[in-house]
Amino acid sequence: MLKTPAWAAPSATQPIEPFAIERREPGPHEVLIDIRYCGVCHSDIHMARDEWGGGNFPMVPGHEIVGDVVKVGDKVEKYAVGDTVGVGCFVDSCRHCEACKDGEEQFCSNGMSVTYGGFERTDGKLDKSRPTFGGYSTRITVDENYVLRVPGSIPLERAAPLLCAGITTYSPLRRFNVKSGDKVAVVGLGGLGHMGVKLAKAMGAHVTVLSHSPGKHDSALELGADDFVVTREEDAFEKNAGRFDFILDTVSAGHDYNAYLGLLRRGGTMVLVGLPEPQALAAGSLILGRKQLTGSLIGGIAETQEMLDFCAEHGVASDVEVIAMDQINEAYERMIRGDVRYRFVIDIESLRKAG
Ligand code: NAP
Ligand code: ZN
Ligand code: ZN
Q1: 47, 170, 192: which to mutate for ligand 1, most atoms within 8 A of CB?
Q2: pLDDT tens for residues 175-225?
Q3: Which residues, 6+ apart, have CB-to-CB distance to 260 below 8 Å?
Q4: Taking CB atoms and a 6 Å cutoff, what residues make up the pocket around ligand 1?
Q5: Which CATH number is 2-163+317-354's, of 3.10.450.50, 3.90.180.10, 1.20.1250.20, 3.40.50.720?
Q6: What is the model's pTM?
Protein backbone atom coordinates (compact mmCIF):
# COMPACT_ATOMS: atom_id res chain seq x y z
CA MET A 1 0.00 0.00 0.00
CA LEU A 2 1.09 3.57 -0.64
CA LYS A 3 0.94 5.92 2.32
CA THR A 4 -0.66 9.09 0.97
CA PRO A 5 -1.12 12.53 2.56
CA ALA A 6 -4.68 13.82 2.43
CA TRP A 7 -7.09 16.21 4.15
CA ALA A 8 -10.34 14.91 5.62
CA ALA A 9 -13.46 15.95 7.51
CA PRO A 10 -13.29 13.80 10.68
CA SER A 11 -17.05 14.33 11.19
CA ALA A 12 -19.86 16.52 9.85
CA THR A 13 -19.21 19.22 12.44
CA GLN A 14 -15.42 19.51 12.31
CA PRO A 15 -13.21 21.43 9.88
CA ILE A 16 -11.17 19.65 7.20
CA GLU A 17 -7.72 18.68 8.56
CA PRO A 18 -4.65 16.61 7.65
CA PHE A 19 -5.27 12.87 7.50
CA ALA A 20 -3.15 10.01 6.13
CA ILE A 21 -4.73 7.45 3.78
CA GLU A 22 -3.44 4.46 1.88
CA ARG A 23 -3.74 3.97 -1.86
CA ARG A 24 -3.33 0.58 -3.46
CA GLU A 25 -0.68 -0.30 -6.04
CA PRO A 26 -2.47 -0.38 -9.42
CA GLY A 27 -4.11 -3.71 -10.27
CA PRO A 28 -3.89 -5.11 -13.85
CA HIS A 29 -6.54 -2.69 -15.21
CA GLU A 30 -5.74 0.28 -12.98
CA VAL A 31 -3.62 3.42 -13.18
CA LEU A 32 -1.93 5.32 -10.37
CA ILE A 33 -2.35 9.07 -10.77
CA ASP A 34 -0.27 11.80 -9.09
CA ILE A 35 -2.92 14.45 -8.47
CA ARG A 36 -1.92 17.98 -9.46
CA TYR A 37 -5.13 19.96 -8.96
CA CYS A 38 -8.51 19.29 -7.40
CA GLY A 39 -11.52 21.58 -7.80
CA VAL A 40 -13.77 22.43 -4.85
CA CYS A 41 -17.42 21.69 -5.64
CA HIS A 42 -20.34 22.86 -3.51
CA SER A 43 -21.19 19.16 -3.18
CA ASP A 44 -17.97 18.85 -1.14
CA ILE A 45 -19.53 21.22 1.40
CA HIS A 46 -22.94 19.44 1.36
CA MET A 47 -21.15 16.10 1.83
CA ALA A 48 -18.49 17.12 4.39
CA ARG A 49 -21.24 18.69 6.51
CA ASP A 50 -23.56 15.71 5.90
CA GLU A 51 -26.32 18.00 4.60
CA TRP A 52 -27.69 15.14 2.47
CA GLY A 53 -27.38 12.57 5.31
CA GLY A 54 -25.75 9.13 5.33
CA GLY A 55 -22.18 10.45 5.00
CA ASN A 56 -19.20 8.20 5.74
CA PHE A 57 -16.50 9.75 7.94
CA PRO A 58 -13.63 10.44 8.02
CA MET A 59 -14.28 11.85 4.54
CA VAL A 60 -11.64 13.00 2.05
CA PRO A 61 -13.67 15.14 -0.42
CA GLY A 62 -12.75 16.10 -3.98
CA HIS A 63 -14.15 14.89 -7.30
CA GLU A 64 -12.67 17.32 -9.79
CA ILE A 65 -9.31 15.63 -10.10
CA VAL A 66 -6.56 16.14 -12.68
CA GLY A 67 -3.03 14.79 -12.68
CA ASP A 68 -0.42 12.59 -14.30
CA VAL A 69 -0.38 8.84 -14.77
CA VAL A 70 2.71 7.59 -12.92
CA LYS A 71 2.18 3.81 -13.00
CA VAL A 72 -0.04 1.45 -14.98
CA GLY A 73 -1.19 -2.14 -14.44
CA ASP A 74 0.06 -4.74 -16.93
CA LYS A 75 -3.29 -5.01 -18.76
CA VAL A 76 -3.92 -1.27 -19.11
CA GLU A 77 -4.53 -0.30 -22.75
CA LYS A 78 -5.85 3.25 -22.76
CA TYR A 79 -3.21 5.13 -20.78
CA ALA A 80 0.55 5.27 -20.40
CA VAL A 81 2.89 6.78 -17.84
CA GLY A 82 3.07 10.53 -18.42
CA ASP A 83 -0.51 10.96 -19.71
CA THR A 84 -2.53 13.86 -18.33
CA VAL A 85 -5.82 12.53 -17.02
CA GLY A 86 -8.89 13.36 -14.98
CA VAL A 87 -11.21 11.63 -12.54
CA GLY A 88 -14.72 12.91 -11.88
CA CYS A 89 -17.53 12.01 -9.50
CA PHE A 90 -17.31 8.21 -9.67
CA VAL A 91 -14.51 5.66 -9.90
CA ASP A 92 -16.46 2.49 -10.70
CA SER A 93 -19.93 1.03 -11.30
CA CYS A 94 -21.37 -2.46 -11.82
CA ARG A 95 -20.73 -2.43 -15.61
CA HIS A 96 -23.63 -4.76 -16.47
CA CYS A 97 -26.91 -3.01 -15.56
CA GLU A 98 -28.93 -1.22 -18.24
CA ALA A 99 -27.59 2.22 -17.27
CA CYS A 100 -23.96 1.06 -17.31
CA LYS A 101 -24.47 -0.60 -20.69
CA ASP A 102 -25.98 2.65 -21.99
CA GLY A 103 -22.89 4.55 -20.85
CA GLU A 104 -24.83 6.33 -18.10
CA GLU A 105 -22.84 4.87 -15.22
CA GLN A 106 -23.98 7.70 -12.94
CA PHE A 107 -27.38 5.96 -12.81
CA CYS A 108 -25.94 2.46 -12.16
CA SER A 109 -28.80 0.50 -10.63
CA ASN A 110 -26.35 -1.28 -8.35
CA GLY A 111 -24.96 2.05 -7.16
CA MET A 112 -21.93 3.80 -8.61
CA SER A 113 -18.75 3.92 -6.53
CA VAL A 114 -18.68 7.64 -5.88
CA THR A 115 -15.18 9.11 -5.79
CA TYR A 116 -15.41 9.90 -2.08
CA GLY A 117 -17.76 9.10 0.77
CA GLY A 118 -18.75 5.83 -0.96
CA PHE A 119 -17.25 2.38 -1.47
CA GLU A 120 -14.90 0.57 -3.80
CA ARG A 121 -16.09 -2.70 -5.33
CA THR A 122 -14.98 -6.26 -4.64
CA ASP A 123 -16.05 -8.77 -7.31
CA GLY A 124 -18.22 -6.03 -8.84
CA LYS A 125 -20.19 -5.36 -5.63
CA LEU A 126 -19.97 -2.33 -3.35
CA ASP A 127 -17.71 -3.32 -0.46
CA LYS A 128 -18.55 -1.53 2.81
CA SER A 129 -15.09 -2.34 4.17
CA ARG A 130 -13.41 -0.29 1.42
CA PRO A 131 -14.30 3.42 1.66
CA THR A 132 -13.46 5.72 -1.25
CA PHE A 133 -11.32 8.80 -0.65
CA GLY A 134 -11.31 11.77 -3.04
CA GLY A 135 -8.95 14.30 -4.53
CA TYR A 136 -7.89 16.28 -1.45
CA SER A 137 -4.91 13.89 -1.54
CA THR A 138 -1.69 13.49 -3.49
CA ARG A 139 -2.55 10.37 -5.51
CA ILE A 140 -5.35 8.01 -6.45
CA THR A 141 -5.63 4.55 -8.01
CA VAL A 142 -8.48 4.13 -10.51
CA ASP A 143 -9.61 1.59 -13.13
CA GLU A 144 -8.65 2.87 -16.58
CA ASN A 145 -12.27 2.71 -17.75
CA TYR A 146 -13.23 5.42 -15.25
CA VAL A 147 -10.38 7.79 -16.17
CA LEU A 148 -10.67 10.68 -18.67
CA ARG A 149 -8.11 12.06 -21.06
CA VAL A 150 -7.52 15.78 -20.47
CA PRO A 151 -6.69 17.64 -23.71
CA GLY A 152 -3.33 19.36 -23.49
CA SER A 153 -4.63 22.69 -24.75
CA ILE A 154 -6.65 23.34 -21.57
CA PRO A 155 -4.54 24.80 -18.72
CA LEU A 156 -4.61 22.04 -16.14
CA GLU A 157 -5.90 24.02 -13.15
CA ARG A 158 -8.70 25.35 -15.37
CA ALA A 159 -9.54 21.82 -16.55
CA ALA A 160 -10.11 20.35 -13.06
CA PRO A 161 -13.62 21.85 -12.58
CA LEU A 162 -14.73 20.41 -15.92
CA LEU A 163 -14.78 16.96 -14.29
CA CYS A 164 -17.90 17.90 -12.30
CA ALA A 165 -19.10 21.46 -12.98
CA GLY A 166 -18.38 21.04 -16.69
CA ILE A 167 -20.12 17.74 -17.28
CA THR A 168 -23.05 18.57 -14.98
CA THR A 169 -23.94 21.58 -17.11
CA TYR A 170 -22.92 20.14 -20.49
CA SER A 171 -25.07 17.01 -20.17
CA PRO A 172 -28.51 18.69 -19.82
CA LEU A 173 -27.67 21.36 -22.43
CA ARG A 174 -26.92 18.55 -24.89
CA ARG A 175 -29.82 16.33 -23.82
CA PHE A 176 -32.29 19.13 -24.53
CA ASN A 177 -30.48 20.04 -27.72
CA VAL A 178 -29.70 23.63 -26.84
CA LYS A 179 -28.68 25.32 -30.06
CA SER A 180 -28.10 28.52 -31.88
CA GLY A 181 -30.67 31.18 -31.08
CA ASP A 182 -32.28 29.37 -28.11
CA LYS A 183 -33.07 31.62 -25.19
CA VAL A 184 -31.34 30.03 -22.21
CA ALA A 185 -31.28 31.22 -18.60
CA VAL A 186 -28.71 30.03 -16.08
CA VAL A 187 -29.81 30.45 -12.45
CA GLY A 188 -26.97 30.97 -9.95
CA LEU A 189 -23.55 32.12 -11.12
CA GLY A 190 -21.22 29.86 -9.16
CA GLY A 191 -18.96 26.98 -10.19
CA LEU A 192 -21.66 25.18 -12.15
CA GLY A 193 -23.43 28.33 -13.34
CA HIS A 194 -20.38 29.94 -14.91
CA MET A 195 -19.67 26.72 -16.83
CA GLY A 196 -23.32 26.66 -17.91
CA VAL A 197 -22.92 30.16 -19.35
CA LYS A 198 -19.73 29.32 -21.24
CA LEU A 199 -21.04 26.02 -22.62
CA ALA A 200 -24.46 27.37 -23.64
CA LYS A 201 -22.70 30.25 -25.41
CA ALA A 202 -20.37 27.81 -27.18
CA MET A 203 -23.51 25.99 -28.40
CA GLY A 204 -24.81 29.26 -29.85
CA ALA A 205 -27.54 30.13 -27.35
CA HIS A 206 -28.59 33.59 -26.18
CA VAL A 207 -27.74 33.37 -22.47
CA THR A 208 -29.20 35.30 -19.55
CA VAL A 209 -27.87 34.93 -16.01
CA LEU A 210 -30.46 35.01 -13.22
CA SER A 211 -28.51 35.89 -10.08
CA HIS A 212 -29.28 37.08 -6.57
CA SER A 213 -25.93 38.90 -6.50
CA PRO A 214 -26.02 42.33 -8.24
CA GLY A 215 -22.20 42.54 -7.93
CA LYS A 216 -21.74 39.74 -10.49
CA HIS A 217 -23.21 41.79 -13.37
CA ASP A 218 -19.97 42.84 -15.06
CA SER A 219 -18.16 39.54 -14.72
CA ALA A 220 -21.22 37.66 -16.03
CA LEU A 221 -21.04 39.69 -19.24
CA GLU A 222 -17.27 39.11 -19.38
CA LEU A 223 -17.96 35.36 -19.22
CA GLY A 224 -20.06 35.79 -22.34
CA ALA A 225 -23.59 36.18 -20.98
CA ASP A 226 -25.85 38.36 -23.13
CA ASP A 227 -28.02 39.62 -20.28
CA PHE A 228 -28.09 39.69 -16.49
CA VAL A 229 -31.18 39.80 -14.27
CA VAL A 230 -31.02 40.44 -10.53
CA THR A 231 -33.67 38.13 -9.11
CA ARG A 232 -33.94 40.12 -5.88
CA GLU A 233 -35.39 43.09 -7.75
CA GLU A 234 -39.09 43.33 -7.12
CA ASP A 235 -40.38 43.17 -10.70
CA ALA A 236 -37.72 40.73 -12.06
CA PHE A 237 -40.13 37.81 -12.37
CA GLU A 238 -42.96 39.86 -13.86
CA LYS A 239 -40.73 41.57 -16.40
CA ASN A 240 -39.19 38.32 -17.64
CA ALA A 241 -42.30 36.11 -17.58
CA GLY A 242 -42.46 33.58 -20.46
CA ARG A 243 -39.07 34.66 -21.82
CA PHE A 244 -36.93 31.49 -21.88
CA ASP A 245 -36.91 28.21 -23.84
CA PHE A 246 -34.67 26.52 -21.31
CA ILE A 247 -33.61 27.23 -17.71
CA LEU A 248 -30.63 25.56 -16.03
CA ASP A 249 -30.98 25.90 -12.26
CA THR A 250 -27.66 25.51 -10.42
CA VAL A 251 -28.59 27.12 -7.09
CA SER A 252 -27.27 25.36 -3.98
CA ALA A 253 -29.72 26.94 -1.49
CA GLY A 254 -33.51 26.84 -1.17
CA HIS A 255 -35.47 29.05 -3.60
CA ASP A 256 -38.94 29.14 -5.17
CA TYR A 257 -39.03 26.84 -8.22
CA ASN A 258 -42.55 28.06 -9.04
CA ALA A 259 -41.31 31.60 -9.59
CA TYR A 260 -38.62 30.43 -12.04
CA LEU A 261 -41.06 28.17 -13.92
CA GLY A 262 -43.03 31.34 -14.62
CA LEU A 263 -40.09 32.55 -16.73
CA LEU A 264 -40.42 29.66 -19.21
CA ARG A 265 -42.31 29.96 -22.47
CA ARG A 266 -45.16 27.53 -23.20
CA GLY A 267 -43.69 24.02 -23.34
CA GLY A 268 -40.30 25.19 -22.05
CA THR A 269 -37.99 23.09 -19.90
CA MET A 270 -36.31 23.76 -16.59
CA VAL A 271 -33.55 21.40 -15.44
CA LEU A 272 -32.50 21.24 -11.80
CA VAL A 273 -28.86 20.46 -11.10
CA GLY A 274 -28.46 22.35 -7.81
CA LEU A 275 -29.38 20.14 -4.86
CA PRO A 276 -30.76 22.20 -1.97
CA GLU A 277 -33.10 20.89 0.74
CA PRO A 278 -36.61 19.90 -0.56
CA GLN A 279 -38.69 22.76 -2.03
CA ALA A 280 -42.44 23.16 -2.59
CA LEU A 281 -43.81 22.75 -6.10
CA ALA A 282 -47.33 23.81 -7.21
CA ALA A 283 -48.89 21.65 -9.95
CA GLY A 284 -50.19 24.82 -11.57
CA SER A 285 -46.64 26.00 -12.24
CA LEU A 286 -46.30 23.12 -14.71
CA ILE A 287 -49.89 22.71 -15.91
CA LEU A 288 -50.35 26.31 -17.00
CA GLY A 289 -48.15 26.41 -20.10
CA ARG A 290 -47.46 22.64 -20.17
CA LYS A 291 -43.96 23.15 -18.81
CA GLN A 292 -41.37 20.51 -18.07
CA LEU A 293 -39.34 20.28 -14.89
CA THR A 294 -36.61 17.69 -14.72
CA GLY A 295 -33.22 17.02 -13.14
CA SER A 296 -29.80 15.89 -14.28
CA LEU A 297 -26.89 14.15 -12.58
CA ILE A 298 -23.31 14.71 -13.78
CA GLY A 299 -22.78 12.54 -16.91
CA GLY A 300 -21.39 9.17 -18.01
CA ILE A 301 -17.76 8.51 -18.85
CA ALA A 302 -18.22 8.73 -22.64
CA GLU A 303 -20.15 11.99 -22.39
CA THR A 304 -17.56 13.42 -19.98
CA GLN A 305 -14.85 12.70 -22.55
CA GLU A 306 -17.04 14.30 -25.24
CA MET A 307 -17.40 17.40 -23.01
CA LEU A 308 -13.62 17.66 -22.44
CA ASP A 309 -13.01 17.43 -26.18
CA PHE A 310 -15.78 20.00 -26.83
CA CYS A 311 -14.11 22.39 -24.35
CA ALA A 312 -10.73 21.95 -26.05
CA GLU A 313 -12.29 22.59 -29.46
CA HIS A 314 -14.20 25.68 -28.35
CA GLY A 315 -11.55 27.15 -26.00
CA VAL A 316 -13.76 26.68 -22.94
CA ALA A 317 -12.18 26.37 -19.48
CA SER A 318 -13.19 27.18 -15.93
CA ASP A 319 -12.35 30.52 -14.27
CA VAL A 320 -10.50 29.55 -11.13
CA GLU A 321 -8.84 30.83 -7.99
CA VAL A 322 -6.00 28.50 -7.07
CA ILE A 323 -5.57 27.90 -3.32
CA ALA A 324 -3.21 25.92 -1.10
CA MET A 325 -4.60 22.88 0.74
CA ASP A 326 -4.58 24.64 4.10
CA GLN A 327 -6.95 27.34 2.78
CA ILE A 328 -9.77 24.84 2.29
CA ASN A 329 -11.89 25.72 5.34
CA GLU A 330 -11.75 29.42 4.49
CA ALA A 331 -12.63 28.53 0.88
CA TYR A 332 -15.80 26.72 2.05
CA GLU A 333 -16.89 29.82 4.00
CA ARG A 334 -16.16 32.07 1.03
CA MET A 335 -18.15 29.78 -1.31
CA ILE A 336 -21.15 29.90 0.99
CA ARG A 337 -20.90 33.71 0.92
CA GLY A 338 -20.70 33.59 -2.89
CA ASP A 339 -17.18 35.06 -2.76
CA VAL A 340 -15.42 33.12 -5.53
CA ARG A 341 -14.95 33.82 -9.25
CA TYR A 342 -15.87 31.07 -10.00
CA ARG A 343 -14.20 27.90 -8.73
CA PHE A 344 -11.60 27.26 -6.07
CA VAL A 345 -9.00 24.76 -7.20
CA ILE A 346 -6.51 23.25 -4.77
CA ASP A 347 -2.88 23.14 -5.88
CA ILE A 348 -2.05 19.65 -4.63
CA GLU A 349 1.65 20.50 -4.81
CA SER A 350 1.02 22.46 -1.57
CA LEU A 351 -0.05 19.21 0.11
CA ARG A 352 2.84 17.23 -1.34
CA LYS A 353 5.31 19.81 0.02
CA ALA A 354 3.70 19.86 3.47
CA GLY A 355 3.37 16.07 3.60
P1 NAP B 1 -21.51 27.39 -5.89
O2 NAP B 1 -20.27 27.61 -6.66
O3 NAP B 1 -21.52 27.67 -4.43
O4 NAP B 1 -22.66 28.22 -6.63
C5 NAP B 1 -23.99 28.23 -6.20
C6 NAP B 1 -24.65 29.51 -6.64
O7 NAP B 1 -26.00 29.50 -6.17
C8 NAP B 1 -24.05 30.76 -6.04
O9 NAP B 1 -22.95 31.25 -6.76
C10 NAP B 1 -25.21 31.73 -6.07
O11 NAP B 1 -25.30 32.35 -7.35
C12 NAP B 1 -26.41 30.83 -5.92
N13 NAP B 1 -26.90 30.92 -4.52
C14 NAP B 1 -26.25 30.55 -3.41
N15 NAP B 1 -26.98 30.79 -2.31
C16 NAP B 1 -28.13 31.31 -2.75
C17 NAP B 1 -29.30 31.76 -2.10
N18 NAP B 1 -29.42 31.74 -0.76
N19 NAP B 1 -30.31 32.23 -2.87
C20 NAP B 1 -30.20 32.27 -4.21
N21 NAP B 1 -29.09 31.85 -4.87
C22 NAP B 1 -28.09 31.40 -4.15
O23 NAP B 1 -22.00 25.88 -6.03
P24 NAP B 1 -21.74 24.83 -7.23
O25 NAP B 1 -20.50 24.08 -6.95
O26 NAP B 1 -21.94 25.51 -8.52
O27 NAP B 1 -22.94 23.79 -6.97
C28 NAP B 1 -24.29 24.23 -7.07
C29 NAP B 1 -25.24 23.14 -6.64
O30 NAP B 1 -25.18 22.06 -7.59
C31 NAP B 1 -24.92 22.49 -5.29
O32 NAP B 1 -26.15 22.22 -4.63
C33 NAP B 1 -24.21 21.19 -5.68
O34 NAP B 1 -24.31 20.19 -4.70
C35 NAP B 1 -25.00 20.82 -6.91
N36 NAP B 1 -24.32 19.89 -7.83
C37 NAP B 1 -25.11 19.04 -8.52
C38 NAP B 1 -24.57 18.17 -9.44
C39 NAP B 1 -25.44 17.28 -10.24
O40 NAP B 1 -24.92 16.34 -10.86
N41 NAP B 1 -26.72 17.50 -10.28
C42 NAP B 1 -23.19 18.20 -9.65
C43 NAP B 1 -22.41 19.11 -8.96
C44 NAP B 1 -22.99 19.96 -8.05
P45 NAP B 1 -25.73 33.92 -7.49
O46 NAP B 1 -24.84 34.66 -6.54
O47 NAP B 1 -25.45 34.20 -8.92
O48 NAP B 1 -27.16 34.00 -7.15
ZN1 ZN C 1 -19.34 18.21 -7.88
ZN1 ZN D 1 -24.45 -0.55 -13.34
Answers
A1: 192
A2: 999 999 999 999 999 999 999 999 999 999 999 999 999 999 999 999 999
A3: 187, 210, 247, 249, 270
A4: 41-43, 46, 164, 168, 188-193, 211-213, 216, 250-253, 255, 273-276, 296-298, 335, 338
A5: 3.90.180.10
A6: 0.97
